[in-house]
Amino acid sequence: MKYLVTGATGFLGTHLTRALELRGHQIVPFARKTGGDVLDATRVARAAEGCHGAFHCAGKVSRDPRDAEELYRLHVDGTRTVVQACAAAGVRRVVIASTSGTVAVSDHERVASENDATPIGIIGRWPYYRSKLFAEREALELNHPGFEVVSVNPSLLLGPGDLNGSSTEDVRLLLEGGVPAVPAGGLSFVDVRDAAEAMRLAMDKGAAGERYLVGACNLTFAELFARIARMAGVRSPWLPMPGSRQLVGVGARLLGRLAQRVGAQAPVDPVSVEMAQAFWYLDSSKAERVLGWSARDPGVTLHDTIEDLRHRGVVWPAQSGERQLRA
């Protein structure tokens, strides 16, 4: 088959492209680095000509509220443009890479499924997840007989090859001792290679108009930090944060202002701290049942993430304090 892959040079797109090529498919890579623009309908339609299907992986990960306008334009307008352009070019099916955060996030410890209501009161405060929610809705609304749209919703992507640090930055901070305390919430993560496989399977087996949550396991941040610390041979933070998201957010903002006054870097990002007080647990049984998808051992994913960060010289080695040479 011939497939268009947007965001082909990104973390997920790179692994997806590799997985498709290994199975003999012809890939049309489309990325900003190679002159692609998801807001240019003409350029997208030209790239999609002759393609049997398309994978839309292009996007930007940011927790900075100042990026809200850019995130909306790239995710919502960009997704609409890509999906419509693919339909105009005669593509029969598009699989979009959304996020588990459009449904699987809660203020208390619970496991979400695709049937849960969108927690708009929570994610509405965070521009990234808000834009991904609207993008997913736009895409699925364009699904109709003769033109099918499927959404894959992975949790936090970990694993090797995150060259831009879009998903593995928090692991890097933990390895360098840059996480001062343990958040009260919990998260799900999935190997990027398994997320790519879910995208591939969704092209062949996903039901039109449906979405599929994919995650390897659900862990509290305390459990996750302890696992990473044991594997990496570093100290895990032990000081617990208060359970109140509002209280922690206020404290983080105050620390940020103090650091700004003295010309230092803030020890914590207020948005990241607020998000880490929530629970991002999910149930992947629909993807397992319908797509035939499965996740590898989460311990393998954590090990490969740590080794990749160290091999590429991204992590400051604690024993010397000197920067390793980048590969």
Helix content: 40-55%
Reported for the largest beta sheet, the result is:
6 strands, parallel
CATH architecture of the domain at 2-160 and 189-218 and 283-289: 3-Layer(aba) Sandwich
What fraction of residues sit in β-strands? Answer: 5-15%
Mean pLDDT: 90
- Distance, first to last CA: 34 Å
CATH superfamily of the domain at 2-160 and 189-218 and 283-289: NAD(P)-binding Rossmann-like Domain
SSE pattern, N- to C-terminal: EHEHEHEHHEEHEHEEHHHHH
Given helix and strand content, the structural type is: alpha/beta
Number of E-type strands? 9
> At the first level of CATH, what is the class of the domain at 2-160 and 189-218 and 283-289?
Alpha Beta
And the CATH topology of the domain at 2-160 and 189-218 and 283-289?
Rossmann fold
What is the radius of gyration computed over CA atoms, rounded to a whole number of angstroms?
A: 20 Å
Low-confidence stretches: 250-260, 262-266, 319-327
Number of distinct helices: 12
Q: Shape, please?
A: globular
Strand order, sheet with most strands = 2-1-3-4-5-8
Concise description?
Helix content is 42%, strand content 13%. It has 327 residues and is an alpha/beta fold.
Task: Describe, in plain words, how this protein is organized in 3D.
There is one protein chain. Helix content is 42%, strand content 13%. With 327 residues, it is an alpha/beta fold. It has a domain of 196 residues: Rossmann fold. The chain has a 6-stranded parallel beta sheet with strand order 2-1-3-4-5-8, with helices on both faces. Strands 6-7-9 form a 3-stranded mixed beta sheet. The radius of gyration is 20 Å and the shape is globular. The two termini are 34 Å apart. The C terminus is likely disordered.
